[in-house]
């Protein structure tokens, strides 16, 4: 069941995420950063990519996985 929508996040979440926008060069990376962080902060007992994608509207497992494996983490 899809539980979380982007509109459900409080305004402070977006303001906090914007602090890291300069780290990511692509719009998709910024979006998936927010999805991943929202999944970690969500109410689900399991904090794995499959569960995060299942609990959120507009989030897919493949996009989250690509973000985690291909993002520039060395910066």
From TrEMBL:
Residues 20-74 form the Transposase IS701-like DDE domain. Pfam families: DDE_5 (PF13546). It comes from the Bacteria. This is Transposase IS701-like DDE domain-containing protein. The lineage of its organism: Bacteria, Bacillati, Cyanobacteriota, Cyanophyceae, Nostocales.
């Amino acid at each position: 069941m899809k539980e979380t929508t982007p509109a459900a996040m409080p305004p402070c979440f977006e303001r906090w995420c914007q602090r890291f926008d300069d780290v990511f060069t692509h719009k998709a990376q910024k979006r998936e950063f927010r999805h991943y962080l929202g999944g970690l902060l969500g109410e689900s007992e399991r904090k794995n990519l499959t569960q995060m994608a299942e609990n959120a509207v507009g989030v897919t497992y493949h996009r989250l996985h690509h973000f985690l494996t291909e993002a520039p983490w060395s910066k």
